[in-house]
Fold:
Amino acid sequence: MSDSEQQSASEEEKDEAKQEMEKLEEGDPPENLEDWPDGKAKYETFGGPEGPHTYQEGPEEKLGPSGVRHHDDGSVTIDGEKVDNPDEYKGDPIPGGPTDPNATGVPGEKKENEEAGGGDG
Structure:
């Protein structure tokens, strides 16, 4: 395959990935991570690259309000105003992640019931 043929095939794959993401943007965004695209489309940005629209004017608005902020104390604010129920703005834990209650362990972290110390010293 020549360089120009490879470049043409690569451009075609990129166009297909953009079309797949545009189709996804027309409806509601998937709720589960498994439902998002694979292949080249997973590297495309929902809403496209920065363009002529703001977050509130484009398909990104379907992902939720842009002014949501999660604070260290567990509270959540939207555009500076504290919400009554912060749990409404928290997603499900990432399977195997540090907030997953079913995770078997996080590499590099000690379990809460393990004692500190225990080294030679």
